[in-house]
Amino acid sequence: LQPSQGKNKRLTKSKKGGKKKAVDPFLKKEWYKLIAPSIFSQKECGKTIITKTQGQKIATDGLRGRVIELSLADLNNNEAMSYRKVKLCIEDIQGFNCLLNFHGMDMTRDKLCSLIKKKQSIIEGNVDARTTDGYIVRMFCIAFTKKQDDQLKETCYAKSAKVRAIRGKMVETMAALAGKGDLKTLVKALIAGTTGEEIEREASSIFPIKDCYIRKVKVIKKPKFDVTALMEWHTDDGTDTGAKVDPAVTEELVAGSGGRL
Q1: What are the DSSP calls for the chain, one per residue?
Q2: Global pTM value
C-alpha cells in the first residue's frame, strides 16, 4: 500500500506575518525635567520618562499626578537632613518641565529604628488639620520618654494619663502649626524641624521627653487645581529689596555758601 500523499498540509505553510522585528522601546520615550518648588535650594531635582504622544494617548496626561520621592538632603544640599524624605507631585507640565508641588513627607526607616530602644515609652499622636489655603493634611508625631538628670532607676516608663496629656499637647501644637498659615508656610516649618523641640518644651512640665519629631505628613485633600497658586510655589521666594544705591556722601558746608554752619 502506498502512503497517501499531501495529508500534513500545515507543515509546508509558512507562518502568517512572520517574526516581529525587535524595536528598542526607549526610542518611543522622551525625558522631562522635574522642577521642585522655590522653597528648596535645588530647583532641578531630576528627570522622568514617558512614552511619546501617540494618537489619543497624550504624554502629559500620563505625567500629571506622578509622585516623586526625594531626600531632603539632595533638595537642600544639607546632609544633616538625609533622614527626611519628601514626596512631590507633578501638577503641571510646561514644555519639557514638570512643575512639582508638595505631596507629603516621611522619615527613613533606619532613623526611626535608631530611636526605638528598650526601657522607655513611645508616645505617638496624629491630627488632621486644614491650612488657610484649603489643604487638609494629616500629621503624625513621635516622641520618647527620657530619664531625669539624676535618675538611678533603669527604666523611664510614663503612666497612661501622662502619655494622654503629652499626646494632647502634640495634637494641639500640630493643629496650631497647620492652621495658622498656608501649605507653603507649613512646609517651611516642617523643613526647619523646630516643631519637635517646641513640643518637648511644652511637655516638659508633664514628663521629660526626647527625640520628638513630626515623622510623617500626608496631604489628604487638595483644593481645585489653580495654576496661579502653583506658580507662587515656583516664583523666587526672596522679598523685593530694591536696587543697590550708592552710600550717601556727606558734603562739607563752607561759610557764606547760603547754609548754616
Answers
A1: -PPPSS---TTTSPPSS-PPPP--GGGGEEEEEEE--TTSS-SEEEEEEEEPPBTTB-HHHHHTT-EEEEEHHHHHT-GGGTTEEEEEEEEEEETTEEEEEEEEEEE-HHHHHHH--SSB-EEEEEEEEE-TTS-EEEEEEEEEE---TT--SS-BPPPHHHHHHHHHHHHHHHHHHHHTS-HHHHHHHHHHT-HHHHHHHHHTTTS-EEEEEEEEEEEEE-PSP-HHHHHHHHS----------PPPPPPPP-TTSSS--
A2: 0.78
